[in-house]
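Structure first, sequence second, as always.
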């Protein structure tokens, strides 16, 4: 004890002397990376294919055994949950030892024994090593799988699923995986009550026979053992495990990344906070040349308390208790980059914006020298501490085998961490962190967060709790008694000037200034219309001429772009011919309209009307107080996908007794254009020749 105290005092005085000479205006130079010398585990292989790695460590009289069956990821499909039930049933007795007797002996030995669907772990005092490896092998080779135990574990799994029904985090994890990989991918499929109910006892037995076998098995032994004795024990107990017929597992391709930044929203009315997770798939493996640089980049972005994300969302703004990012590796298909946090409802939109900001920051700004040094120091510290555990050495050896790593991967690990530069961080961030192709999965209370999320300008797609695409949730308010769709339409007609005034409008000429996000110019859009259905639009940019022209003369039409004239398709021609006048509301048949709900847009109460014509539905929203049309929404098929166009109308002004919207915003997918009207003419400035 006195020696330790004396040593502490000497070190303290030395530190004081050194500190007195430090120039604190300069960052200390990092010392050389500690030299890492890793003892190579002993190895041998059984005839049935099991590869055994042994790390002898005689500091404590204990031993552990880790069994890993290295199959490819397995898709369980309509019976998802089989592996969970099997994992719960394994390790509870054998065909040679009843369940209670088996578990009592484990307890008596002071040992641990647990199983997963393709793994097992056991540990005990080294003097009981032969018995614990015997029990482990017996439970793996001769499991006690009974119908009674199956029914019990099946019921427990269903109850667990029910308990997660209202868990925001559980839903976020399920939906995020399904959207990233696809529901038919092993990493994207999920367990539901329906899939569990599809599972029969025979399915579990078949799964065990097919996948729980020594074909691809590794057994890692660590502790106070002798190599020759280990060989004898494992050959005696695991050597009798027979190989099974090989299984060719095909892994489906994961979903592609999103074409553009988008919010994938799941409404959970019970949510008291929102779970935000920005995610994109990455092709990232442990043997990549950039492996160490990616670890450092992620550490700086969201891998610790002092990271960009945590310092912004937690420390600066107080949105969350913690914000993190993570990037995983995978030998099979793609893995994922994720970044996000659980935040208060009222700051959900702000948290999304700030998350994007920090990701773009690490992609565009050189990291501060201090942040880079701190990230490296954290990895060095964690690595050195991990080496204190003998299990680490065995795991490292197994990683080298499974991930096709060079033999010196871990002995040069710290050297490669310390070699990561600022340029490396920015380069790998741009390669792997892809907000421009990311899904931002937001699970939260839609009635409280959606309105502000819409203001971010990021396109929003809607999904249910099982990753099935759905319509935007409607947060309805009570409708006035007796109100009908016809009443709402009549109120609109009256609000904008009355039926007589509207029917007198035979033509309109509207000149607007267009705003295109990111464009350095504002084109001029000229729109001419003549009753009943003639239409002409031309977009011109100063110094660039006509960018686009569209024309319909009542019978035929075309679009012209870059000097190329493209005739309108028959479907669009039919739609335009069906128009009966310049104000659609005058001609809507009662049988085609339905009052859907009373909801809110940007804080304004509106009535939502569903219009169904030729089997196709679109939506129109009318201000409850003014009666004005404030939004239309329709979905069309184009280039093999559905495209929803939302048009917002505002800033109504009187033009010859008719109220006209002077501001119009059109949002189609990720694109949004705003039209600000500069001039409107009614019944002048337009002739039939304009549509030729």
């Amino acid at each position: 004890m006195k020696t330790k105290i004396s040593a502490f005092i000497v070190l303290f005085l030395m530190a004081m002397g050194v500190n007195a000479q430090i120039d604190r205006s300069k960052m200390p130079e990092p010392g050389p990376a500690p030299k890492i010398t890793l003892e190579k585990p002993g190895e041998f292989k059984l005839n049935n294919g099991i590869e055994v790695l042994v790390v002898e460590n005689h500091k404590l009289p204990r031993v552990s055994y880790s069994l890993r069956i290295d199959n490819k990821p397995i898709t369980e499909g309509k019976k998802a949950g089989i592996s969970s039930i099997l994992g719960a049933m394994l390790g509870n007795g054998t065909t040679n030892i009843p369940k209670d007797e088996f578990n009592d002996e484990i307890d008596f030995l002071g040992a641990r024994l647990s199983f997963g669907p393709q793994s097992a772990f056991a540990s005990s005092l080294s003097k009981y090593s032969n018995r614990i490896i015997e029990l482990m092998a017996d439970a793996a080779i001769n499991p006690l799988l009974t119908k009674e135990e199956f029914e019990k574990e099946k019921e427990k799994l269903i109850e667990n699923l029910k308990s997660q029904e209202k868990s925001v985090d559980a839903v976020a994890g399920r939906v995020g995986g399904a959207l990233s990989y696809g529901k038919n991918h092993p990493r994207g499929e999920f367990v539901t009550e329906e899939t569990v109910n599809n599972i029969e006892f025979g399915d579990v037995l078949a799964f065990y026979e097919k996948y729980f076998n020594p074909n691809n098995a590794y057994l890692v032994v660590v502790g106070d053992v002798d190599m020759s004795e280990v060989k004898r024990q494992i050959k005696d107990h695991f050597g009798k495990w027979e190989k099974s017929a090989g299984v060719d597992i095909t892994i489906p391709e994961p979903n592609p990344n999103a074409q553009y930044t988008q919010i994938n929203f799941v409404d959970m009315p019970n949510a008291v906070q929102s779970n935000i997770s920005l995610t994109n798939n990455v092709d990232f493996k442990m043997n990549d040349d950039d492996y160490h640089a990616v670890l450092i980049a992620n550490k700086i972005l969201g891998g610790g308390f002092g990271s960009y994300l945590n310092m912004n969302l937690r420390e600066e703004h107080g949105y969350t208790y913690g914000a993190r990012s993570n990037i995983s590796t995978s030998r099979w298909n793609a893995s994922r980059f994720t970044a996000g946090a659980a935040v208060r409802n009222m700051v959900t939109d702000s948290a999304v914006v700030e998350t994007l900001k920090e990701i773009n920051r690490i992609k565009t700004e050189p990291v501060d020298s201090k942040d880079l040094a701190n990230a490296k120091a954290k990895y060095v510290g964690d690595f050195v501490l991990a080496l204190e555990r003998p299990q680490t050495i065995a795991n490292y050896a197994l990683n080298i085998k499974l991930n096709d790593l060079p033999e010196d991967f871990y002995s040069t690990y710290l050297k490669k961490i310390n070699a990561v530069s600022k340029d490396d961080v920015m380069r790998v961030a741009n390669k792997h962190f892809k907000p421009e192709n990311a899904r931002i999965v937001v699970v939260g209370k839609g009635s409280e967060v959606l309105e502000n999320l819409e203001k971010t300008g990021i396109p929003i797609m809607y999904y249910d709790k099982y990753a099935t695409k759905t319509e935007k949730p409607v947060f309805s308010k009570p409708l006035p008694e007796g109100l009908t769709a016809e009443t709402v339409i009549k109120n609109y007609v009256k609000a904008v000037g009355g039926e007589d005034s509207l029917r007198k409008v035979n033509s309109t000429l509207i000149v607007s200034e267009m705003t295109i996000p990111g464009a350095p110019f504002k084109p001029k859009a000229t729109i001419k219309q003549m009753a009943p259905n003639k239409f002409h639009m031309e977009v011109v940019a100063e110094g660039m001429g006509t960018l686009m022209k569209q024309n319909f003369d009542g019978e035929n039409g075309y679009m012209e772009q870059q000097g190329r004239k493209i005739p309108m398709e028959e479907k669009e021609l039919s739609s335009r011919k069906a128009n009966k006048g310049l104000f659609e509301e005058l001609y809507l048949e009662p049988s085609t309209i339905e009052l859907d709900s009373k909801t809110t847009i940007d804080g304004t109460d509106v009535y939502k009307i569903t219009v169904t014509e030729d089997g196709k539905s679109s939506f129109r929203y009318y201000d409850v107080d003014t009666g004005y049309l404030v939004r239309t929404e329709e979905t069309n098929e184009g280039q093999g996908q559905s495209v929803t166009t939302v048009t917002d109308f505002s800033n109504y002004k009187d033009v010859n007794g008719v109220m006209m919207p002077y501001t119009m915003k059109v949002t189609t997918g990720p694109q949004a254009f705003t039209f600000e009207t500069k001039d409107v003419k009614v019944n002048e400035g337009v002739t039939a020749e304009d549509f030729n």
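Margin note: The CA atoms of residues 299 and 558 lie 54 Å apart.
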